[in-house]
Amino acid sequence: MNRREFLRTAGGAAGTAAATSAVAGPAAAQEGGGGGSGPIDYGGYLENANGWSSGGTADKTGKSEVTIAVGPGSSNKFDPVAVHVDPGTKIIWEWKGPGHNVQAKDGQFKSETKSEGTYEHTVDKKGVIPYFCQPHKGMGMLGAIAVGQVPRKSPAAAQEVEPEEMGVPIQPHYVGFGAGLMMTTSLVFTFYLLKYGESAHTKGGNS
Ligand SMILES: [Cu+2]
């Protein structure tokens, strides 16, 4: 287990504690180590990226090659949407669906639009490289590569990292169910209010 993995594990443990005590912020914030403390800052570029969740960068540092799926499952997305790698890492995009390309916003790489195979680019300079798929850019097919030490959000922002990114297994279904239940309850209440409350009142007013 290298240092980063250790820290990740520690972060996960702290995150688990947070599930009940909500004090995880500072402990989890230390995970970033070198580049600062919070999640990597993409300057809002990934806000509308398909498949993106805040703080969802895949940590691929320490690897010489990283593979990113292009359009998996008939979706217009990259998977992972964002990766963090060391300078000198070879990025390999692997086509999983037809009609996509990969193109850096700053023009440092650009593949043809194709339907299978791979495209490779080695990232040398540190910093964030936003990129997209030209045909599906407007539909949210966006991605980013963070190379080396990159800007991070403040520790305060780190506390907004979704718990599942810290290794806490949360149950999205339960959350969704709870929200649905609340919505249904209020809808039913409104329905009865309108149907009985108001019609009774209206009737009274008319007679
Ligand atoms: Cu595409």
TrEMBL record:
Membrane spanning stretches: 174-194
GO molecular function, one term: electron transfer activity
A Pfam family of this chain: Copper-bind
Alphabetic keyword roster: Copper, Membrane, Metal-binding, Transmembrane, Transmembrane helix
InterPro entries: BlueCu_1 (IPR000923), Cupredoxin (IPR008972), TAT_signal (IPR006311)
Keyword Transmembrane helix: yes
The protein's name: Halocyanin domain-containing protein
Source organism: Halocatena pleomorpha
